[in-house]
Design brief:
Helix content: 40-55%
Largest sheet: 7 strands, mixed
Structural class: alpha/beta
Strand order of the largest sheet: 2-9-7-3-6-4-5
Number of strands: 9
Oligomer: single chain
Radius of gyration: 17 Å
C-alpha cells in the first residue's frame, strides 16, 4: 500500500488561519463588538478550510438527529486534534467546547478561547472542575450547545478510553439531551504527536439519536455513561477504524 502523502504546508496554512482568527477575536473583544454569530462564523470557516486543505473525503450521517432549536451536549470519541475542526465544519448552530486548562495557557490561542466563551477545566482540581461545569451550564441557558470528549484525552489506538464523569453530571443537572457522535478517521489525518497533515483521508461523522436526561437523576449517572459509551462505540464503527 502506498504511504499517504503528508503536507507540512497544509498544516502551516491552517495554523496561520487559526492565529489570524484568534487575533481578530481578541481585537473584537477589546472593542466590545465580539458576538456569538461572529465566533460561529470564524470557527466554521476554520473547520471548512481544514477539511479543504487536508483534502478530507468527509461523510456525515445522522443529521436528522440534530436538534434544531435547543441546546444539547455533544459527546464523541476523541481520536485526534483533527476532531475539533471536523466537528466545527459539520455541527450547525452555536457550539462551544469544554477543554483542558493547558490549552488556555497557549499565547494568543488561549485568550481567544476564553474571549469566545470556551470553558477551561482542570480535572485535577475538583473545585475548579465544578466551577467549569457551572459555566458550561450557563452557556446552555443562552441556547449554546456544548461539546465534550468524555475520554478526556486522545486515544492513539482507537480504543475508547475510560469515561470521565463530569460531562454526565452536567447533562443531568441541566437536563440536557446528550447527542452521541462517532468519529472515524481523524487520527488518520493527524495522528497523535504528528505535525504534518496526511492528505486525502476518509473521515466519517455519525450523529446518534439524542439521549434524553430530563427524567433522570444523579443516581442514573453510571447507567447513562454506559448508554452513551455503547452508542459512541456503535456509531464510530469497529475499533474506531476508518474506511480507508
Amino acid at each position: 500500500m502506498t504511504p499517504p502523502r503528508t503536507s507540512i504546508l497544509a498544516s502551516l496554512r491552517w495554523v496561520g488561519l487559526l492565529l489570524f482568527h484568534c487575533r481578530e477575536v481578541l481585537k473584537a473583544a477589546r472593542r466590545g463588538t465580539l458576538s456569538h454569530p461572529d465566533i460561529d462564523a470564524r470557527m466554521r470557516d476554520m473547520g471548512e478550510r481544514f477539511v479543504q486543505w487536508a483534502r478530507i473525503d468527509l461523510s456525515i450521517e445522522g443529521t436528522e438527529n440534530l436538534p434544531g432549536d435547543r441546546p444539547v451536549l455533544f459527546m464523541s470519541n476523541h481520536e485526534s486534534q483533527a476532531d475539533i475542526p471536523v466537528l466545527f465544519a459539520t455541527v450547525p448552530g452555536t457550539l462551544r467546547m469544554v477543554a483542558k486548562r493547558e490549552l488556555f495557557n497557549v499565547p494568543v490561542f488561549g485568550p481567544a478561547l476564553r474571549a469566545s466563551g470556551y470553558v477551561a477545566i482542570d480535572r485535577k482540581n475538583r473545585e475548579q472542575a465544578i466551577a467549569a461545569l457551572r459555566l458550561a451550564e450557563d452557556l446552555t441557558r443562552q441556547n449554546i450547545s456544548i461539546w465534550m470528549a468524555p475520554e478526556g484525552t486522545r486515544s492513539s489506538s482507537g480504543e475508547l478510553l475510560p469515561f470521565k464523569k463530569g460531562g454526565f453530571i452536567l447533562a443531568l443537572q441541566a437536563g440536557l439531551p446528550i447527542v452521541p457522535v462517532g468519529l472515524s478517521g481523524p487520527r488518520d489525518v493527524l495522528p497523535k504527536h504528528a505535525l504534518a497533515l496526511r492528505l486525502g483521508q476518509r473521515v466519517r461523522v455519525r450523529f446518534g439519536r439524542p439521549i434524553e436526561t430530563a427524567h433522570l437523576t444523579i443516581s442514573d449517572r453510571d447507567r447513562l455513561m454506559q448508554q452513551v459509551r455503547e452508542a459512541i462505540e456503535e456509531l464510530r464503527g469497529p475499533q474506531g477504524v476508518s474506511t480507508t
